[in-house]
Write a structure and sequence with these properties.
Keywords: Electron transport, Membrane, Signal, Transport. This is Auxin-induced in root cultures protein 12. It is found in: Membrane. The chain is α+β, with helices and mostly antiparallel strands. It has two domains: 52 residues; 171 residues, Immunoglobulin-like, CATH 2.60.40. Helix content is 19%, strand content 32%. It has a six-stranded antiparallel β-sheet with strand order 7-8-3-2-1-13, with no helix packed on it. A five-stranded antiparallel β-sheet has the order 6-5-4-9-12, with no helix packed on it.
Length: 232
């Protein structure tokens, strides 16, 4: 019985350790991402696909949207992209910012793409933008920063995001066609929530709250079960 009891004790310790390892480590609120003015963004979202994150601030005074999109390329020589589609929540017609690594110690390259169909061809965007740059972050992530002009009085924009394949001599390869890649689109409400198909609103003080509580409930249930086994 001693080996059996030891195994149960090890399982209990492992479950308890997971309780004190916060699930919020994978949420946007833990990322130290600042705007061009070196201030935090007003809102951040854990996007529902591709382990991606969006930090943003909407300025109704000048109808501008400042964003920082954070994601990890699907491979070490891959790319990430965030886009606005003025007409629909589809890739075709998207006005995209795309970034990829440019070598050790160098900042990522970031370019603009006016996407027609599934051809990735560099081009001018249909709206004004400024403060465009990209940064390398911890863990292989890349962040794209930009401020874009949105229509005056707009309550939402169609956003599309993606992580893609290899980049060879500046030529961008296609992205995978798995369900997460095909579903990475949503309506971004400029008041701080997403529409159908998107993730929930995350402000820095509340991001990850539900995830933490779900994990706590599951692990607590396992501990209670193990305690019952010890007793009987």
């Amino acid at each position: 019985m001693a080996p059996h009891s030891s195994l149960l004790f090890i399982l209990a310790v492992a479950c308890f350790s997971s309780l004190i390892s916060p699930a919020t480590s994978q949420t946007c609120s833990t990322q130290n991402v600042l705007s061009a003015e070196k201030t935090p963004f007003q809102t951040c979202l854990d996007l529902p696909e591709l382990e991606s994150y969006l930090h943003y601030t909407y300025n109704a005074t000048n109808s501008s949207l400042s964003v920082a999109f954070v994601a990890t390329p699907s491979r070490s020589d891959g790319w990430i992209a965030w886009a606005i589609n003025p007409a629909a929540t589809t890739m075709s017609g998207s006005q995209a910012f795309l970034a990829y690594g440019s070598g050790p110690g160098a900042p990522p390259v970031v370019k603009t793409y006016n996407i027609s169909g599934y051809n990735l061809t560099e081009g001018r965007l249909a709206f004004d933008f400024w403060n465009l740059r990209a940064e390398s972050l911890h863990g292989g992530r890349i962040a794209i920063f930009a401020t874009v002009k949105v229509p005056a009085g707009a309550g939402s924009v169609n956003q599309v995001w993606q992580v893609g394949g290899n980049v060879t001599n500046g030529r961008v390869g296609v992205h995978p066609f798995s369900p997460p890649n095909l579903n990475s689109r949503a309506v971004l409400n400029l008041t701080g929530t997403t529409g159908a198909g998107g993730g929930g609103s995350k402000t820095p003080g509340n991001a990850g709250w539900m995830t933490t509580n779900v994990n706590f409930g599951v692990n607590l249930g396992v501990l209670v079960l193990l305690g019952t086994i010890f007793i009987f």
